[in-house]
Amino acid sequence: MVEETGATLGNIERIGIHIAGIVQGVGFRPFVYNLARRHHLRGWVLNDGAGVRIEAEGASHALREFVAGLTAEAPPLAVIADMMIIALPLKGETQFEIKSSLISVTHSATISPDIATCPDCRREMADPNNRRFGYPFTNCTNCGPRYTIITGVPYDRMRTTMDPFAMCPACQAEYDDPANRRFHAQPNACPVCGPRYRLLNSDGQEAAGQPLTEARRLLKNGAIVAVKGIGGYHLVCDAMNQQAVTLLRTRKIREDKPFAVMGGSLESVRRHCLVSQAEETFLTGAVRPIVLLAKTAGYSLAEAVAPGNPCLGVMLPYAPVHWLLLAPEDVWVMTSGNSSDEPIAYTDGDAIARLAGIADYFLIHNREIHYRADDSVVRIFNDKPYILRRSRGLAPAPIRLVRPGPPVLACGGELKNAFCLTKGDQAFVSVHMGDLENMAAFESYKATIGHCQGLLGIRPEVVACDLHPEYLSTKYADHWNLPRIAVQHHHAHIASVLAEHGLEEPVIGIAFDGTGYGSDGHLWGGEFLLADCREFTRLAHCRYLPLPGASRAIKEPWRPAAWMLQELYNADFVNLDIPLARLLPEGWQMTIQAAAKGINAPLTSSAGRLFDIAAAILGIRTHIHYEGQAAVELELAATGARGDTLPYDITAGNVRELDFRPTFAAMVQAIGQGRGTAELAAAFHTTLAAAITDMTRRLSKTTGIRKVALSGGVFQNMTLLRQVAGLLEKDFTVLIHRQVPTNDGGLCLGQAAVAIERSR
């Protein structure tokens, strides 16, 4: 039970316990206090810079039961990563108490993510006889803001943005009462002493009436309201109101990308979407992310919410203000408070400055948000979460690494950025930081790294980054006067899967995405790697093709499609009876001629561009308005359809190539035969899955590897993931992401894992 021998008196002992993990901000000290009182122990508990420290004295059998109860009965949101127990000399205390937190120069406490409002707090807000009736900042030790309000550790009110709000006598009494669930609840507040909302118009003038009641009335009448929540501002409007949603699209400059919605109840969600048991679990749990759901046949929200898309991103209320604004039957658009490609607004001044041209009104409060946090986004795959964005409710909870290493700062990629800080065997992946090409996002990224270093007590000794020399994250890494480890983009993708699963042996890694800087200076994206968390060998890839117009080819899928067709048919392809031939812009020939001469046409092996080519040939999308739109719409076109496997080639050599020119030639021929868009979109997915499986089996024969890891943004496509995993699982162990996104939001974890291995 103990690591050292201390003084005892008969069967009376004293022990010291230190617990690390997510044990601050989750009601752990009150839990310890009540557990100790139940076992008639004396001593104390406190927060320190590394977790929770306990000294307990009492009968030997009582101490044994107390220690067992620390893990068996811990609060539901607590995560005990480590527990150290030592024997101590007796002190003869007469009671057990919660002591003031111990401040230390070094610290390594783990901070809880923000937690959705618990049922007890919801009942109080709905009870006219309760003093917190209708109060939009109701919380307790089991719920409420954590990460977004903390300014330092140990976690105490004075080191949160609740510090300016002194508790009234009633709240203080709850805080001091061991039998109360608000015992030592740091954000505790009520209408008498806590934060308050105000409603402002777009000119900054305060509106008359009760702020939440008036905001709800305005929303029901078609207004757009910027609502300050836990991690930032949302832009909100009635999802049943086509005019309001269309106006929001226009003002936000968001042409086609679907909006997320919030339903007032699970019943209101079920009226518009199919909800499985696993999906319901995530919708109603403590995290409450946006969950991507399939629409029902009776879907009746405004068409502008998710135009032409059979899926919808849905969440349920997670903050008190949501429960008070939405009636059970309501469904409202709840989209990030920003213009397209900007980071979410979270300070009042920035929100009013940036959103004044979008929102008609601002529902703001006077509790500072210290860290911004977008909503997390998940899909359910095989009844388990498949994370697309890891942010509010999930970050910065640690991920356990297979072994400890030096503290690392992994800077992540350029798009969908997240960074990672490691300490010992724990990796702390940040909330979603956005696209660093936006300067506001980049400035926020740098500031948040600094904040998290201080919060987690991590001083990096190694910095890891992407291999791309022009990424802002790479240039940021260069500013550190530390050993720098550059990790190839697709190696980082595969290493992130291995790190999640605690795997040290090599695997066949299949990294399919839009683009990543390759070791040969070309743009990779359709890669088969022999990889572990230290090194990789490129075994195979999709055949290189040029990107006519460079980065413009990513936003204009007609460009790579036109190149592909001129390779197959020369310029005569414009005479083919296919949709793309009728959609080409004027001057397209000059673009292709320049690419043929190698002018502004970098080579790429990107699998993402294959989706673009297929979408353009079929006339689905020749220009995109958001990242991956052509691929998304190609998958939507294939939904519910069946398609045969089309031909493709695999070339031999030290590094094999997957050649899809025969695939696209077959598609053109099939169009001429009158086969429909849905069938051919499905055939493209079927062919890609078959080709991936074929190549993997060949590589397995030469390497002897029977484990396969899938990563990269292309595997956000559920149709492809389902087919590839289903085919490969017949012969291989298939590893996919479960804790970080398969897109570039998970890169930083792979970078950190590689840096640790290379630093050994």
What's the SSE blueprint?
Elements: E1 12-22, H1 28-38, E2 42-48, E3 51-59, H2 60-72, E4 79-88, E5 96-98, H3 119-126, H4 169-176, E6 197-201, H5 211-220, E7 225-228, E8 233-238, H6 242-252, E9 260-263, H7 266-270, H8 277-284, E10 290-294, E11 311-315, H9 320-325, E12 331-336, H10 348-355, E13 361-365, E14 377-381, E15 384-389, E16 399-405, E17 408-410, E18 420-429, H11 439-456, E19 462-466, H12 472-478, E20 484-487, H13 489-501, E21 507-517, E22 523-531, E23 536-542, E24 545-546, H14 552-555, H15 558-569, H16 579-583, H17 588-596, E25 603-604, H18 607-617, H19 629-638, E26 649-651, E27 656-659, H20 661-672, H21 677-703, E28 707-711, H22 718-728, E29 733-735, H23 747-758
Parallel strand pairs: 2-5, 7-13, 9-11, 10-14, 17-19, 19-20, 21-28, 23-27, 28-29
Antiparallel strand pairs: 1-3, 1-4, 2-3, 6-13, 7-8, 8-12, 9-12, 10-11, 14-15, 16-18, 17-18, 21-22, 22-23, 24-25, 26-27
Helix pairs in contact: 13-23, 15-17, 15-18, 18-19, 19-21, 20-21, 21-22
